[in-house]
Amino acid sequence: MRAVGGDWRSSLLANSEWDICDTQYCARSGGLSAFRDAMSSAFMPWQIEYTEESEFEARMVCGSSEYGAIARVAMSPAVSTRKSAEIAKSASDCLYGSYVISGELVVEQRGRTTIARRGDLVLYDSALPVKLIEVSTGLYEDMAIRIPKEKLTPVRDQDAVLGNVVISAEQMITPLSSALSFLAQNMAVTTAQELHALQATCAALVPVAALRSYTGSEQADEVSATPNYYTRELARFIDANIGDAMLSPRSAAQHLGISVRYVHKQFAAKGTTFGTYVTDKRLEFVRQDLICEACRHHPIFAVAYRWGFNDLSTFIRAFKKKFGCSPREYRLTFL
Fold it and tell me: Most buried residue, 7, 83, 116, 152, by most Cβ within 10 Å?
């Protein structure tokens, strides 16, 4: 087998089943860009910042299947981020994981910071902003994992259990530890069939291992002590913009730097939808204004418009459905 020059895709080894990006085959100034493109292709968009004076080095051996992607990575320590721009360009919601082989990984997500060390597995959510800080005196090394959420074994409290949580080497269940250790040592010689089986194993075992590690841990205490950060911030954003007719899941997602899918998921967990939640709040404000002494002589359409309704017939139908009468009839009962 041989490596050839050009962009990262041309760094593939001939006849290999793996995608291999190695910066030694890139132009000196193009190594970071090539690695970022390779990482973004396999793991959805990321930004990678490297500020050291020394040349950036990286090698990634990556395989993928219906269970996502997994890669053996060795790289100069850098800072990797996913912000609103990268999240918006992502095709699906996934669970990320980093199984640390050498060095440390600092993860900032969900308003807290975790640190994964050698042998630890840290999990974080593709739908939320995240910052990864790699720390090492030499090359930082890990197994990078991406699993589509629909492939994961369902567990209770899934968002908390799988969101910026560390499974320590001591707490990790043996089958998962063995699968990750095997891949870390044998990635380049693993067959496509073996990779598929090992990825399926990870998809099945990671949530189980995370739940076992999470339950009763300090991480669980920390998460349960405060409401879900994004649930709280969504409510605040809606309250601040309830009168804006353009308020939408997309505008909320862009403001918070999260995916639209994650916004919908937060409301689905409460048994409702974004639209229903917003409409109910607007109708309640309208109801209060209709009988308020200061607003009693304001036209009904003006009250509705003030609270974000820009179509009168739609507003009247929604009001009747919620309160059992028209806005005019409701107001008359309090005159």
Answer: 116
